[in-house]
Write a structure and sequence with these properties.
41% helix; alpha+beta; four-stranded antiparallel β-sheet
Length: 172
């Protein structure tokens, strides 16, 4: 439980077994814990009827989805090596743009082999004029769907491909 985990973590710190620990989930409030909200965790309870979910979208999200479709953005669903390679190309560009290190290709090839090939994930790619402009790696297990990695070409953000990708993920 989170209560027990938190108590044990505080005990380790008091005993000088560890000096610092970063936890990326909500813990019970304790005076010994400093909480930062630099990371955001979004959850959305999904209704079996995706149009029911859509009713609760902000107007700007709906406009962005409409804009993407109107401008010819198409979403492609896949689990194959070609989809993974297309996503990885976008991922490398995005990570470099943000000055963040890029995971090696081997990591993604193993993700494909052990997760995507086991039907526990998929890739969504946004395409415009036969060019991939954005993508997302989605993982799923036990009725939970996670948008694990997202990437997009900066020169195509005006096409709003990410909004379309998230909508397709929700519909799935």
């Amino acid at each position: 439980s989170r209560e027990e985990f938190t108590s044990q973590m505080i005990q380790f710190i008091k005993e000088d077994k560890i000096r610092k620990m970063e936890i990326r989930c909500e813990l019970p409030a304790r005076p010994e814990i400093t909480q930062h909200s630099r990371y955001v965790f979004h959850t959305l309870q999904l209704d079996p009827d995706s149009m029911e979910i859509r009713k609760h979208f902000r107007r700007s999200n709906l406009q962005n989805i409409h804009t993407a479709v109107e401008r010819g953005v198409e979403i492609e669903f896949g689990t194959g090596l070609e989809h993974l390679k297309a996503f990885y190309t976008l991922h490398v560009m995005t990570r470099k743009k943000h000055g963040a290190p890029v995971q090696p290709w081997k990591y993604f090839s193993l993700l494909g082999k052990y997760v995507l090939d086991s039907n526990k994930g998929f890739i969504l790619l946004a395409r415009k004029d036969n060019e991939y402009i954005a993508g997302m790696v989605c993982l799923h297990w036990n009725k939970t769907l996670i948008a694990k990695y997202c990437a997009s070409r900066e020169d195509c953000l005006n096409l709003r491909p990410n909004n379309c990708i998230f909508w397709e993920m929700i519909r799935w």
